Structure formats: structure tokens, C-alpha cells
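User: quick one, sequence for these C-alpha cells?
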């Protein structure tokens, strides 16, 4: 049985994400803003297509990362876990955070999804830090 390989291997995508994160962490000034767009697979985005076609698409399982797509631009969200991005793939979202001035990365402070014409917070860095402290900073 033969297997199909993506034109861009998972390893290459991981390397690209790692380099973007390293460059993002080492640079200076940031610009805080709110971006509105959709979460899409990184591999699909770099190939210029929208996939997965829905949240049940098997492509979700093999997609190494997901990015915020705003018009013809896209942004890594390195401090947001993959499971959060997968849960809201293809949904219209608002991402509040500080965009790197040179690289297509955003340090996310909050993610909101649109439901019934209103924006609802579904993730925030503050919530993650509070939960992490509750689990790991317990004094016995």
C-alpha cells in the first residue's frame, strides 16, 4: 500500500513554525490590535486553499497547526494550544493581541467567536495562566 505525501512535509511545517516563533520571541516592538478573520489549517493556507471543508474533515487530524486568516494575510498564534484552534476551525473569530511588527505572528491575549450576532470570549491568556497557577502552584 502506498501513502500520499503532502507537497510540504509535516517536518518542514514544524520547522517553519519553530523559526517563526523563535524570530517572534527575539524581536522588539509590538502593536496591540484586534483582528477579525477565520481559523484555517496552516498547510491549506500556505497552498492558498480553504480546508478542511468542515470540522469533521479528516484533514484536521493531519494538519500540523492552524492560523488566523484575515483577508489575504495569515498569522501564527504560537501561545494558543492546537486543540483550541481545532475546536474553532473555519469559524469567524476576533483575536485580540500584539502583532509582531516584522513576522506574521500574534501574541494572543483573547479569542472571541461570533454567536447570534454577539462576540463571546472562548479563550484568554489570563484564563490559561490562572488555571495553570491553580494546578501547579498549590501549597501543601
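Assistant:
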Amino acid at each position: 500500500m502506498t501513502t500520499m505525501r503532502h507537497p510540504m512535509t509535516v517536518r518542514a511545517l514544524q520547522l517553519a513554525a519553530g523559526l517563526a516563533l523563535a524570530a517572534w520571541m527575539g524581536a522588539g516592538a509590538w502593536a496591540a490590535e484586534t483582528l477579525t478573520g477565520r481559523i484555517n489549517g496552516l498547510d491549506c493556507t500556505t497552498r492558498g486553499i480553504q480546508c478542511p471543508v468542515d470540522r469533521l474533515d479528516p484533514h484536521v487530524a493531519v494538519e500540523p497547526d492552524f492560523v488566523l486568516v484575515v483577508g489575504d494575510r495569515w498569522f501564527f498564534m504560537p501561545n494558543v494550544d492546537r486543540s483550541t484552534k481545532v475546536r474553532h476551525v473555519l469559524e469567524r473569530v476576533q483575536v485580540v493581541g500584539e502583532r509582531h511588527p516584522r513576522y506574521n505572528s500574534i501574541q494572543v491575549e483573547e479569542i472571541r467567536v461570533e454567536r447570534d450576532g454577539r462576540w463571546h470570549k472562548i479563550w484568554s491568556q489570563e484564563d490559561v495562566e490562572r488555571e495553570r497557577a491553580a494546578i501547579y502552584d498549590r501549597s501543601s
